[in-house]
Write a structure and sequence with these properties.
408 residues, 3 strands, Receptor-associated Protein, 75% helix, three-stranded antiparallel β-sheet, extended, 2 domains, mainly alpha, single chain
Length: 408
């Protein structure tokens, strides 16, 4: 058994604080709910609570950027409070008081003031568009209009959790290949910049002709040592040029069109874009947004300018009464299987569910494809590094053997 400190609200919305003994946090939450309280936060109590609070306040209440995890937590807690019957303004006020991120705290207090002034929650969130996305704001707006804000918030939380999980999985899967590349590249750089020059001095002092691989290796080493400022400057210039190029509409369009044509990776990127579009559109439709407005938002959030342009005419097709399936098939963006599934969903009046089902299917396909690509990428990186290091070693060995051919 352990002692936990908790913060909760009672049926009247009053904030209650205290400590209870329980086996774990789950048991404590169950106990609080049996007591008629709605748990907000549960933390393990410490003997030096006062000291820990004073020391932790500087770090926990520091000003930092608002992350996706912050938004997910806020959405979950707000949904639970609304389901428990708390008024919207009171819920926002409690969450603002408990928020540890000073940046997000200010946003929530500003939102509370806006609601107190008669603005809707969506209008208040829209003022902070760098934190709350267009999808989030419009879904909340649809929930408010339909009188089902708490239900919409639950769907939003699930949508954000799935999106964040996919991003985290991709980042985690890329850690090992990236680490492997950095370590291998660093080892090769050390050999070329420090080991080879010392070796070449010895060979040049002894005179005689050296094998071609050794000459090539020494030439690469000399070029890196002599022109490294030029090489670094060129890399920086190219990076800046590409950065500014992709900020232009045409540059972004060309880059995105190139990305989906890359062998092996292109089809995975295409599926990822289709999945994002399907999940966004499905979530917005479930939230009660009209299909035209939902389509306009979904197209903007696809993350690929080339595919967004290709799917743009779909909105006009739906506006003319052609439905969603026919314009999607004509765009060539969605695979035929996806189009057929959406056609069935459109006919049965379950388009939103079909879109989310399609997104789940593609997410699973993407996960499997990424694992296969990474399982292929790792041996390719190892093989490439082995070839580079092998060339360096063989070049040095040939140079050593050539010493025996020198006249004594």
């Amino acid at each position: 058994m352990a002692i936990f400190s908790y913060q909760a609200t009672d049926g009247a919305g009053k904030l209650v604080k205290g400590t209870l003994e329980a086996t774990d946090k789950t048991a404590l939450v169950d106990k609080l709910q049996e007591m008629g309280y709605f748990p907000i936060s549960v933390d393990k109590s410490r003997e030096d609570t006062k000291k820990g609070h004073s020391e932790g306040s500087f770090f926990s209440r520091r000003r930092r950027r608002v992350t996706g995890a912050d938004i997910v937590g806020f959405t979950q807690e707000l949904s639970g409070m609304l389901e428990a019957g708390l008024p919207l303004d009171r819920s926002i006020s409690i969450l603002a008081e408990l928020e540890r991120n000073e940046t997000f705290k200010e946003v929530l207090f500003d939102t509370y003031k806006g609601i107190q002034g008669g603005d809707s929650l969506a209008d208040c969130l829209e003022k902070h568009d760098t934190i709350f996305s267009e999808i989030y704001v419009n879904t909340v707006r649809a929930g408010e209009a339909g009188g089902s804000l708490e239900t919409v918030l639950v769907r939003l939380k699930k949508f954000m959790e799935v999106t964040q999980r996919i991003k985290d999985d991709i980042k985690s899967a890329l850690i090992y290949p990236l680490l492997l590349t950095l370590v291998g590249g660093g080892a090769v750089a050390v050999m070329l910049l420090f080991v080879i020059p010392r070796f070449s001095v010895v060979l040049n002092d002894m005179g005689g002709a050296m094998p071609l691989p050794t000459l090539i290796l020494m030439g690469i080493s000399d070029a890196l040592r002599s022109y490294w400022p030029v090489i670094v400057g060129l890399i920086i210039f190219l990076a800046i040029a590409i950065k500014y190029a992709i900020k232009t509409k045409e540059g972004r369009l060309k880059l995105d069109a190139f990305k989906i044509r890359i062998p092996l990776f292109g089809p995975v990127l295409r599926k990822a874009v289709v999945s994002r579009f399907s999940r966004t559109l499905g979530a917005l439709l479930q939230g009660g947004l009209p299909i035209i407005e939902a389509l306009n938002i979904s197209v903007k959030t696809m993350g690929n300018a080339s595919m967004s342009r290709a799917i743009g005419p779909v909105v006009d097709g739906v506006r003319r009464g052609r439905g969603l399936t026919v314009p999607l098939r004509e765009s060539g963006v969605f695979p035929e299987l996806a189009v057929h599934m959406l056609a069935v969903g459109e006919e049965t009046g379950r388009l939103d569910e079909t879109l989310l089902m399609l997104a789940d299917k593609y997410d699973r396909d993407i996960s499997v494809a990424i694992k296969r690509l990474l399982s292929l990428l790792e041996p390719v990186i190892i093989l490439f590094m082995a070839v580079v290091v092998g060339f360096i070693v063989i070049s040095l060995i040939l140079a050593v053997f050539s010493i025996n051919d020198l006249p004594m």
